[in-house]
Every structure is written in C-alpha cells, then in structure tokens.
C-alpha cells in the first residue's frame, strides 16, 4: 500500500523559513571561503595597493616552508591530546556525577560553568596560575623541586596549552555525556548487575557502547574545536612560543597574515587548513561512524 503524499499548503513559507539560515551560511562561510581561495592565488603588498596573480605558487611556498611543517606537527600533537583529555575527563566526570545521590544538580551546574568562560579569559587564567614568576601552581612546582618555566621550555608550554584547551572543553563534553547517560535504560544496567556483572564490566559492555552516538558527535566537534577555536587560548598563554613550539596551523595563519602581512600565503594556509579539517571530518564519518550503533 502506497503511503499518502504529504503536501505543504503554502509553497513560499518553507523557502522563507530557510532563507535566514541560507543567508547566514552564504555570508559567513561561502563568501569568506571564496575570498580566501581567491586571495591564495595572489601576491599582494602589505597595503593591498598592488596585486599579482601567481596561481599555486603560494601553496608551493607554504608546503615547502619548514616552519609550516613544524606547525603541522604541532597541530597534530596538540589536537590529539586535547581531544583525548577533554573527552576522557568529560566522560569520567559525567559518570561520577550520575552516581551522586545528593547535590547532583549543584555539581552539574558547577561543571558546566567553565564553558561560559571565553577562550582568551581561560588562557589568561591558566597563564596566571602557571606563570613562572607569580603563578601559585608554578611556585608549588618549584617548591617540589621541578623546574617549571613554560616561557622557555617548549614541552612545558605545549602541556600548558593542552591543559587549558581541554579544561575549556570538558564542560561541553560533560553536558552531552550526562544527557547520553540519562537516555540509557536503567533496566539494562540493573539486569547486568543481577547477572553478576561488575561496575567496570557494566560500563564497557553496556554504558559505553550505548554512548557511541554521543561519543562520535563529540569526537567531530572536539576535533574542529582543537583546530579552530583554540586560537584565543594559544594567543593568550604562549603566543605560539617559545620558539614556535605551540604555533598551531590556525595561529600561523594569523601570524603570517595579520602580523607579517603576507596575505597570499596566509590565505593559502587557511585553504589548506580548511581542506584538512574537511578531510578529517569525512574520514571520521566514513570509518568511525561504522562502529557507531544507533538504537
């Protein structure tokens, strides 16, 4: 039996409802993306008074630049550890919060608050806490005999920006994991407990597999966050230093374009960055989503 065809009585209203979203997408995504692609084929002076079409020369220069390869490696390390720490701690805190009997709502509220902090402010908070000259945690580290100086030590600077970026994103992950945990039927967990499954086994065989859709969504969101939205944290904490040890791809785009006024290569870097993020997202949907069970 054929299903009856659903028709919308007003033919213009659906397009009017879609128009604001389409306009925002065109103005704030496709137009800047097209401008970046066009600028990446040009060589301009610092004041934009003269232009020369150079084709793919900017891309060849960028990909042959050792500093850009360094930024690519830094971004890989930074994004992997930021995503892993933010997802892992977000899930851990969500599971622990669900076990609370009293004060559950209060704890959830406290956990969500850090997400309201702007990235630049979050970076400044961590900078003040771990500043080698006046930071309280830096003083405690020196007291314990550890030579803490992220302003001169590249590895320590990377640890600091990873911790600050992950801390900023933990609240977001916590919120979604709590929602995912609440959607799991309690009867499944109780049945497993009656059958003798321990707490750890119940988590890995029942809870975590049922959280797969939430985890996959957060994996995509956190990857995009690590590549793009951490600029404010890096700019506030290390400024890409010391010695370009924390200069990620998005920060190099800013540094070359707005500081060094090399617009052509900066635009080429932004195009490459966009292609990398799109490719990573496509790979995640192509291979990781296969293991996600929706049901």
| Secondary-structure element series | HEEHHHHHHHHHHHH
Do you know the CATH architecture? Orthogonal Bundle
% residues in beta strands = under 5%
Instruction: Quickly give the structural class.
Output: mainly alpha
Domain count, please report it.
1
| CATH class (first level) name | Mainly Alpha
CATH-defined fold name: MetI-like fold
Specify Rg, calculated over alpha carbons. Answer: 24 Å
Largest beta sheet: what is the strand line-up? Answer: 1-2
Number of strands: 2
Helix content: over 70%
Global mean pLDDT = 88
- Main β-sheet description: 2 strands, antiparallel
Overall geometry comes to: globular
Q: Tally the helices.
A: 13
Distance between the termini: 27 Å
CATH superfamily: MetI-like
InterPro entries: MetI-like, MetI-like_sf, UgpAE/MalFG_permease
Transmembrane segments: 12-31, 76-97, 109-130, 157-182, 203-228, 267-288
Function: Part of the ABC transporter complex UgpBAEC involved in sn-glycerol-3-phosphate (G3P) import. Probably responsible for the translocation of the substrate across the membrane.
Subcellular location: Cell inner membrane; Cell membrane
Structure in words:
The chain is mainly alpha-helical and 295 residues long. The chain has one domain (73-287): Orthogonal Bundle (MetI-like fold). 71% of the residues lie in helices and 2% in strands. The chain contains 13 helices and two strands. Strands 1-2 form a two-stranded antiparallel ribbon. The chain starts with 12 loop residues before the first helix and ends in a 7-residue tail after the last helix. The chain crosses the membrane at residues 12-31, 76-97, 109-130, 157-182, 203-228, 267-288.
């Amino acid at each position: 039996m054929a299903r009856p065809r659903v028709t919308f009585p007003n033919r213009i209203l659906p397009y009017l409802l879609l128009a604001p979203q389409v306009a925002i997408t065109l103005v704030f995504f496709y137009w800047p993306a097209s401008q970046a692609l066009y600028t990446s084929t040009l060589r301009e002076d610092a004041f934009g008074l003269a232009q020369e079409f150079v084709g793919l020369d900017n891309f060849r220069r960028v990909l042959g630049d050792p500093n850009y390869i360094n930024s690519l490696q830094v971004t890989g390390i930074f994004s992997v550890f930021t995503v892993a720490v933010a997802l892992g701690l977000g899930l851990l805190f969500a599971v622990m919060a669900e076990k609370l009997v009293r004060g559950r709502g209060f704890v959830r509220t406290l956990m969500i608050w850090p997400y309201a902090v702007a990235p630049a402010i979050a970076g400044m908070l961590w900078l003040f806490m771990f500043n080698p000259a006046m930071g309280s945690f830096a003083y405690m580290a020196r007291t314990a005999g550890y030579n803490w100086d992220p302003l001169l030590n590249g590895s320590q600077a990377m640890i600091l920006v990873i911790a600050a970026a992950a801390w900023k994103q933990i609240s977001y992950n916590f919120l979604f994991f709590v929602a995912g945990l609440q959607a799991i039927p309690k009867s499944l967990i109780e049945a497993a407990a009656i059958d003798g499954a321990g707490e750890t086994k119940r988590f890995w065989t029942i809870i975590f597999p049922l959280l797969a859709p939430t985890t996959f969504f957060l994996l995509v969101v956190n990857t995009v966050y690590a590549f793009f939205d951490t600029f404010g944290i890096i700019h506030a904490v290390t400024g890409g230093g010391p010695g370009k040890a924390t200069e990620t791809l998005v920060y190099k785009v800013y540094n070359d374009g707005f500081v060094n006024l090399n617009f052509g290569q900066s635009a080429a870097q932004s195009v490459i960055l966009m292609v990398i993020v799109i490719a990573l997202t496509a790979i995640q949907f192509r291979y990781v989503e296969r293991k996600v069970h929706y049901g």
